Amino acid sequence: PSTLTTLGTRIASLLIRLSSEIGSGKFDISPLNAEDIHYVCNALAAVVGDGPGQSIFLKQDLKRLHIPLQSITDAMLSHAIDKKFIEKCWDNTQLLNVLNWLSRGLKQGVLSEKNDNVRRCFASSLELMQGWMPAGGETTGPATHAARLDSRQLSKCMVQINTCIKFSLIDLDRERDSLASLILGLCGDPALHACTLWETVKHSGQQKHGAHRTLKTVAPESAVVTGISNTIKDALAAGILDLGNAKVQTVIHQVCRL
Predict the structure, then answer these.
(1) Residue 171 near residue 113, CB atoms below 8 Å
(2) How many other CB atoms sit within 10 Å of the CB of residue 75?
(3) pLDDT tens-digit series, residues 201-240
(4) Fewer CB within 10 Å: C terminus or N terminus of the chain?
């Protein structure tokens, strides 16, 4: 077997053992802080991958990891929800990374869309995203550096909204209007005027030492445009967005110009 296959098999065994020890109480997750859980979610997203052929695990490993990964994730999310990490600790980048793991786990079939903590995490995240709309100006909420997202962050938001739609993680009939409002709000002016990226600029020399973040215009990235456009397409298909709506038409036009 290849080195990567061997590594995947050993990581699978480690995850099965971790799940068992969490379940038995031998491994206590209560001391874990928000950053610890963020790191775990990032690691799980990396090894599970985003689709067929992108995982470090063989197909048979993914099948036997369904229960262990659901168990580990459920315990981590339960702790995060209890300690209010979602609302009080994770900034927008960290929260989107956590959601990225959940999204990948759902797509790869190792997490269940019926899990209560997965659904609660997405529901809470959608509420926080209401404060990330560009029309809101600067905010003081702990889950965002500024209401203005860069294009990558916006695309990641759209991907997670699409995950909610595809896996029915929220009551789409009840939340249809609020979800439409969120999509159009996040994509509102000036979000789609150009592709942007937050960049940390360090000061040196005669300037005061330190750094600040600045939003710069960058060349369009295919993954960014795809993430946004796929969500709009699927929201239209699900009846969440109405093609006859002038705001929807404006957003589509701006996406096509990116």
Answers:
(1) no
(2) 19
(3) 776 655 555 567 788 899 989 999 999 999 999 999 999 9
(4) N
